[in-house]
Write a structure and sequence with these properties.
seven-stranded parallel beta sheet; 350 residues; Rossmann fold; three-stranded mixed beta sheet; alpha/beta; 11 helices
């Protein structure tokens, strides 16, 4: 059954993939974006646009009119920012405003986007983290923001009696990213010859899978449940090896002790302050991820949504194809036939 859906953060990487999946299923979509937003990923799509900001409750109230379901993606996804408030305030205030705006409107449900960073990491590579786990670390502002915002979402859901379903996506890789998110940047930098891998395990999700599962959540999934949206965990060393196998581009692995990675992050921050260049990683990120393991149990997701995820090789190949297509990376001419763009990308603005 077709639904009228409001998507916040509609122009972001996850938003664009979600909206494309929703439209393919016949839903009516209202995209909530700022007037200054880059809309490259949404051009040509049959959408209604509502302009505003999640920190402006009046614009949210206006955007909600006529909508039955909300998918909340809006967030500042940065691992490096001039101020903590730049990341924290949109997450916390945006969540509060969303529920206040939706209260007493008859909204069927809010499909809320948290993150696996709100689930946490482990020092034990044999531990599978589940939906019952919560991040206890306060190293990275983005991690703190996502954790506190999700906690607030559950609280406000109870307070205003608004049904919610929460997704915790892991690092999203792949198509329709025009800004190069911190997750995709890991792969892009490898292919630019500036990337490397360190000891630790990380988890990813294909952007195509993420968008499709959000679209399925209009009808599937259980209200009041928290779902980990992730494929299997993979050692960063093995991710680098797979990139090399696909492209021939050597990705160095540095199995340095944790303290050296932390010191390197501190050095990258100092250079960033001098140059204005975003660091490859920060001291806080190194403390959070170096020699740690972000491995999650996705069994509940796969069961409730009856879904099969793309393999990591498929995901990396699609990611490489996308960034080659929009000109963010250059591949050897001999690889041209293996990384042709999808037909639906052709003719889109770069």
């Amino acid at each position: 059954m077709s639904k009228s859906i409001l998507v916040t953060g509609a122009n972001g990487h996850l938003g664009v993939n979600t909206i494309r999946a929703l439209l393919k299923k016949g839903h009516k979509v209202t995209a909530f974006v700022r007037k200054t937003s880059n809309l490259n990923g949404l051009k040509g799509l049959p959408l209604t646009y509502k302009y505003g900001d999640v920190q402006d409750i009046d614009s949210l109230k206006e955007a909600l009119k006529g909508c039955e379901i909300i998918i909340h993606h809006a967030a500042v996804y940065k691992l490096w920012a001039k101020t903590v408030a730049e990341i924290m305030e949109p997450a916390i205030e945006g969540t509060r405003n969303l529920f206040l705006a939706a209260a007493n409107t008859g909204i069927e449900k809010i499909i809320y986007t948290s993150s696996t960073v709100a689930v946490g990491t482990s020092v034990d590579p044999k531990v599978l983290l589940t939906e019952s786990d919560w991040n206890k670390s306060e190293n990275v502002p983005y991690y703190i923001a996502k954790t506190k915002a999700e906690e607030l979402a559950w609280e406000l859901s109870d307070k205003y009696h608004i049904p919610i379903l929460v997704f915790c996506p892991s690092g999203i890789l792949g198509r329709y990213d025009y800004t190069v998110t911190p997750t995709n940047r890991q792969i892009v930098e490898m292919l630019r010859g500036r990337g490397m891998t360190v000891k630790g395990t990380f988890s990813f999700i294909d952007a195509r899978d993420a968008g499709e599962i959000y679209a399925l959540a209009i009808e599937k999934g259980k209200i009041g449940e928290r779902y980990i949206l992730s494929a299997d965990g993979m050692r960063m060393k093995d991710v680098g090896k797979m990139v090399t196998a696909l492209t021939g581009k050597w990705v160095p692995h540095f199995p340095f002790p944790r303290f050296i990675n932390i010191a390197s992050g501190r050095l990258f921050e100092m250079l960033a302050k001098l140059t204005g260049w975003d660091p490859l990683f920060t001291e806080a990120v190194a403390r959070e991820l170096s020699h740690k393991h972000a491995i999650y149990d996705n069994a509940k997701l796969l069961k409730d949504f009856d879904y099969k995820l793309y393999s990591m090789e498929d995901t990396l190949q699609d990611t490489i194809r996308w960034f080659s297509y929009i000109g963010k990376i250059k591949l050897k001419k001999s690889l041209g036939d293996e990384f042709q763009p999808d037909a639906e990308w052709l003719g889109s603005n770069r």
